[in-house]
Amino acid sequence: MLRSVIVRALALSLPFVLVNVGCGGDDDGDTQTTTTTTTTSSTGGSGGEGGNGSGGNGGEGGSVQAECAPADPETYDGTNFATNAATELALRNQLNALNGLMRNAETDLTVTPTSDELVALFDAGTPSLRDATTTYYQGEIEAAFDLFAAAAGNTWTPASPPVGDGGKYGAYIFSAHGNDLRQTVEKGLFGAAFYHHAASLSVGPIEEATIDQILAAFGAHPTFPGDSETADPTVNPNPDRIGAQYAERRSPKDPGDSSRPLDAANPGPYFRIKANLIKAQAAVRAGAECNAVRDQAIKDVLLDWERVNAATVIYYMNSAATQLTTDNAPETTLAAGLHGYGEGVAFLHGFRQLPATARLITDAQIDALLELIHAPIGQDPRSYELITDGSSTVPALALAIEQLATIYSFSAQDVEAFKVNH
User: Fold this and answer.
1) Do 75 and 42 meet the contact criterion of CB atoms below 8 Å apart?
2) Residue 241: Cβ-neighbour burial (10 angstroms; 0-12, 13-18, 19+)
3) Where are the beta strands (DSSP E) in 135-189?
4) Does the predicted model carry a pTM greater than 0.70?
C-alpha cells in the first residue's frame, strides 16, 4: 500500500541526501496513458541553471561506466509504462477530478460543492490523494475545502479588514483573506503529494517499474513531448503535467521540435530530468553493479524537480508583482495577479514538512518566505493587502525572489530567465 511506503519514508532518512550546490499557464490538464518508446535528446546530469534557464552538464555526464550507460541515451522505453505506473496515473486522474470540480465552481457560481464532496474526491481511490500527501498538508487541504465550500457561489471584493466568506474575484475563488483556494489544493499537492510520492519511491527497493512510477509522478510521459500547452490530442496526446509541465516551461526548446532543447550543450531542467530517467532505467536493467549510477540519476531527478519548483515560485512572484502594480489596472488584472501569487504560495507551501533529506530548502526557510509574502504559517494570510495596500506589500515579492535565488544558488541571469515561459 502507498500509505505504508510513505510512512516508512517519513520515518527513515532518505538515502539520497540532496546537498546544496555551489553558487553560481496555469492549470493542470487531463492525464493520458498512451505508452510508446521515444527518441529524446541526451544531456548530462544536474548542473547550474545557466543564463537561459538551462545550465551546464553535471551529474554523471560522460563518465558513466559503459556497462551502466543506456544503449541509446536518447530513448526511454515506455513499453510497460501504463502497467508499471498505474497507481501514479490514477492519482493524476484523481487530482484532475478534484481540481475539475473546483474549477467548475469558479466558472459557474451555481456550482457550490460542499466540503464533504471535496473530501470524498480527496479520499477516492486506492491509494487516494490523501494517502500520497504529507500528514501536514492533509490538514491544509481540509482547511481549504472548508473555506472553498463557504466561498463558492459568492462574489468577493478585497477589503481591509476582511469581511464575509470570500468568493469569486475576477475568474477565481478566494477566501476572505485573499487565499486562492483551488491553487492551495492543486499546486500544493504537486509537492505535498506527487514529489512526496516520488521521494518515497526513491527509498527503495528500486526496480525497473520504479523508474516508470517516478516518471509518472513527475507528470511526464515516455514520449517527453516538451509541451503542456497544445490542446489538440491528435497533435500531442500526452501533454506534460504536474512537475513536468513547469519543467518544460523553464526549459528553452528547439523552435521546430519541443521535445529537444534549444541548446543541447546547456539543456534546461526538463531535458536533464529526461536524460536522468533514461540513465536510471538503463542502470536498473544493467544490474546491481550499476546501483550507484542508478541512485545518482534518481537523486538528480529530484534535485532538478525541486529547483523547477523554486524557479516556478520566482516566475509567479514576478508575474504577480507586475500585474498588481499596473497603473489603473482593471479587476481582471488584479485578480489574475492575486491568482498567480496564490500559485506561487502553494508551490512553496507544498514542500513544507517533506522529508528533510529529500530537499534542499528547509522548513525554517519556507516559513520565513511565507511570512515575508504575507502568508504566515498558522495564521490567516494577509494576501488581500496586495490589493488594498499594494504599495506597501507588493515589494516583498521581489525580496522573496532574492531569497530563493540565495537558497538555490540561482544567478541573476537564471532569475531573469525564470521570469518567462518557454
Assistant:
1) no
2) buried
3) 167-169, 172-174
4) yes
